[in-house]
Automatic annotation (TrEMBL):
Domain of life: Eukaryota
Organism of origin: Leptocoma aspasia
UniProt-recorded name of the protein: SET1A methyltransferase
Gene Ontology biological process terms, A to Z: methylation
Alphabetized UniProt keyword annotations: Chromatin regulator, Methyltransferase, Nucleus, S-adenosyl-L-methionine, Transferase
Amino acid sequence: NRVLSERRSEQRRLLSAIGATALPDSDLLKLNQLKFRKKRLRFGRSRIHEWGLFAMEPIAADEMVIEYVGQNIRQVVADMREKRYAQEGIGSSYLFRVDHDTIIDATKCGNLARFIN
């Protein structure tokens, strides 16, 4: 409890230092809040796609839940990896498109975010 209290105090100091009224809907503040309060999530079997990540509490539409972690790769590399994963018998690959040129491959080095359906 003491650690959480110190973190909340630190967040209040940060908000007052940058002026919370100037940036009430800032993505920076939402990201910063994730460090202070982790969402309750559960990993388990999913009817949608083998495995899934389930929220154990209500989460607002604009609230950050978890960062998608993996290797940033180009489309050409993603195409090659997808074929290789199929040849290796890896049933599920976790390739997340960020934009036209960037894909995050969480298949072998990702976190629980790859199981969000």
